[in-house]
Amino acid sequence: MPATVVVGTQWGDEGKGKLTDLLAGEMDMVVRYQGGHNAGHRIVVDGEAFALQLVPSGVLYPHITAVIGNGVVVDPAVLLKELDTLAAKGVDVSRVVVSGNAHLIMPYHQELDRVTERYLGKNALGTTRRGIGPAYADKATRVGIRVQDLLDEKIFREKLDVALMEKNALLSKVYNRLPINANELADRYLGELAPRIAPMIADTVTLVHDALAAGKRILLEGAQATFLDLDHGTYPFVTSSNPVASGACTGSGLGPRDLDRIVGIAKAYITRVGAGPFPTELDGELAELLVDRGHEYGTNTGRRRRVGWFDAVMARQAARLNSLTEIALTKLDVLDTFPVIKVCVGYEAGGVRYDYPPYHQSVLHDVTPIYEELPGWLCDITHCTSYDQLPQAAQDYVAYLAQVTGVTISVVGVGPGREQFVRPA
Question: Among 2, 25, 24, 46, which Cα is nearest to 420's?
Answer without folding.
Answer: 46
